[in-house]
Amino acid sequence: MPSINLRPKDFLRWAIFGGALFFLAQAVRRHWAEVAQIRIEGAGWRLLAIALLITLIAHLWTGWVWGWILGDLAQPVPALWATRTYLKTNIAKYLPGNVWHLYGRVVASQKRGISLGAATLSVLLEPLLMAAAALMLGLVGIRQANWSVQALSLVIVLAGVHPRVLNPVLSVLRRLKGRGKKTADAAADLADSAPSSAPSSVPSEAKPWQLKRYPLRPLLGELLFVALRGLGFVAIALALQPVAPAQWLPLISGFSFAWLLGLVIPGAPGGIGVFEATAIALLGNQLAPAILLSVVALYRLISTLAEAIGAALAWRELGVQRPH
Q1: Total structural domains in the chain?
Q2: CA 89 – CA 141 distance, rounded (Å)
Q3: Most exposed among 11, 78, 232, 246, judged by the fewest C-beta atoms under 10 Å?
Q4: 48/66 Cα distance (integer angstroms)
Q5: Is residue 300 in a domain?
């Protein structure tokens, strides 16, 4: 009977996921009676529809921004292609592993002739820029005890994507990759035992993958993306109860932190559980517990629905363009 070996990373992932679910279950148990009494009126349904539209626009926009990232890596692509590819792969983030959406974009990029290094770097830069954008919005609206740690994290991320920092790291990685290629070619030559006039190795990339300039435009684009997601969250809250304009920024700020933790903490696919638990912990002083529970539940539903609609639109558009 085969044995199942769980790595420490797997234990950490399941521990975080289980802890988040336990926290949510406890919150729902305590406030279920109030949640059951919440009713959505006609105006509330219209606000939920607006939240869905805003969230869908946010996903369309961030696909466009991913095209900008490829352009900054000297791999220009049509904006519509980048958006469609992003949308049709984004839904795969809910699969176990939480990396299949990134893998899908790399494969699609290679089919278009984009180098493997540039495609891989683009899907690594994107969440880094998203994280920086979420930190920016989070630091603007909520002042917490660990504000200085969060500010330092933002500085580190912003400095890490600077070409003067990132490109030397990429050069080292390329050299290591080239040494591995030479070793593999030498082993193949020995195995064949046949001399050849061809060089023992060829460059693995036709073009070097480097960041040509600081990705300021993609960073601002991701800032707008996170802000749109936050506005969608606020629209959901407005559908359930009046929210004063002065509360909007704290809500968006708390949402940004919760969304960031769902992005970077290894847990359930798509940040399920981590986002909800963090949002409830951070925004408990902004909304009543029953309202907050309902908002995070509706947000998850609307967010997933927007991603599914975006993927369906992308696949339909690709199907229309495909020759019969």
Answers
A1: 1
A2: 32
A3: 246
A4: 27
A5: yes
